[in-house]
Amino acid sequence: MTEKAKKRFRIISLVAMLVIVASAVIWVSAQTTDEATEGETAEQSSTEAVDGAENDAEPEEDEELPVPVEVAEVTTGTISSYISATANLVAEDQVKVLSEAEGRIERLDVEEGDRVKKGQVLAVLVQDEARIAKSKVELKAANADAALERARNSFEQGLISSEAFDKLIMDQKLARQEVAEAEWQLAKTVIRAPFTGRITERFITLGQHLRPGDELFTVADYDPLVARIYLPERDVIELEEGREVRITAAAETQLSFIGRIRQIAPVVDTATGTVKVTVEAVQPPSGVRPGAFVSIDIVRERHATALLLPRESVIRELRTAHVFVTDEDVAVKKAVTLGIEEGDVVEVLTGLDEGDAVVIAGQGGLDDGQKIKVL
Questions:
Q1: pLDDT band at 189, cuts 50/70/90?
Q2: For residue 246, how many other CB atoms are within 10 A of its CB?
Q3: Sequential DSSP letters for 353-370
């Protein structure tokens, strides 16, 4: 083989080897790509399967959950509007007993809370000085009586003048007047109740020295107890004496009792534009004390067959009000017109019928037509 032929053979062999190596590399690369593609496909299929399972677990649409509520029925009953005021119940007859004499307290016969009758002795001052003074004037009066008797015979016989006899008569009258004054001074040392009632305050102690005008006791007559209220003139136009009222103790709101209007002042206070109305308690409970703070309600208007609904069911807006009523398991919004309000109930004039079930709890977040669940 020539040198030229050898060289050509080597070139051809080298090219053949390069082709073989390139073909092997391309085949290996193709195998690797197919395996990667198959892995990605399997992973994608697995992911789609998981996502599909999650989607199958979720509902297609969000279901509306019912709102739990409480309801009450619209009823028929009596409702009233009132003129209301507050005042203190006081004893109509209440006075402070004052000392009319000077002296030391020798005896105390009553204590705060004691019931007393008119004229009953409450306390006694030392009476020695007053008794001595009385004895002196009694002797003087007896002397004047005796002198007059002796002079009477002489006058009848003309032995003494008319002027002398008249002077003896005057002396006797003055002596008797002095006796009466001494008895009056002695009586002032005994302190007596001015009327039947109860001792509400005692200001003195045994042995205390008094001067005229010193406060001794407060005596109050609990029957009757009265309250004086002041109402605008427009509120008393239709009131009349004898009308029944309701009195409620402020300290215990469940304690209510009956009263009546006893007097309506005939004039209007020009400074306040009010009229004084005196209310008398009728047989108040034993626990009610003079001075108790009370509220007084006078019926202004009364409706005997009104439609009533609980106050808490009403949702108020600026000028309107509405409630929610139940229609099977749905809340229906209804506008209402309200009337008189008393306590926990409200009169409804339009918008509802007797027996309608209104929502009284849970209505704050309700919408018209929303599903509800009655508890």
A1: very high
A2: 17
A3: -TT-EEEEESGGG--TT-
At 121, is the secondary structure helix, strand, or coil?
strand
Q: What is the pLDDT of residues 67-111, one digit of tens each?
A: 898 999 999 999 988 899 999 999 888 899 999 999 999 999 999
pLDDT tens per residue across span 109-153: 999 989 999 999 999 999 998 999 999 998 988 888 888 888 887
In CATH, what is the architecture of 83-91+222-302? Answer: Beta Barrel (2.40)
Residue at 298: amino acid letter: I
**CA–CA separation, 7 and 370 (whole Å):** 98
- Enter the CATH code of domain 68-80+303-374: 2.40.420.20
Q: 227, exposed or middle or buried, with CB in 10 Å at 0-12, 13-18, 19+?
A: buried
CA dist., res. 314 & res. 259, Å (int): 33
Cβ neighbour number for residue 106 with a 10 Å cutoff: 14
Q: Is 42 helix (H, G, I), strand (E, B) or coil?
A: helix
Residues in the chain: 375
Cα–Cα distance, 227 to 368 (Å, whole number): 50
CA distances from 153 to 141, 172, 316 (A): 19, 16, 105
Distance CA 369, CA 375 (A): 18
Report how far residue 95's alpha carbon sits from residue 225's, in angstroms, rounded to the nearest whole number.
14
In this structure, the dihedral spanned by the alpha carbons of residues 312, 317, 319 and 321, taken in order and rounded to 10 degrees, is -40
| Nearest-angstrom CA–CA distance, 185 and 133 | 9
Just give the CATH number of 96-210.
2.40.50.100
Mean pLDDT in residue range 238-263? 90
User: Is residue 191 within 8 Å of residue 214, measured between CB atoms?
Assistant: no
d(CA 123, CA 98): 12
- Per-residue pLDDT averaged across 145-162, rounded? 80
Q: Is 121 left (phi over 0), alpha (psi -120 to 50) or beta?
A: beta
Which among 300, 313, 296 is positioned nearest to 347, based on CA atoms? 313
What was the pLDDT predicted at 43? 46
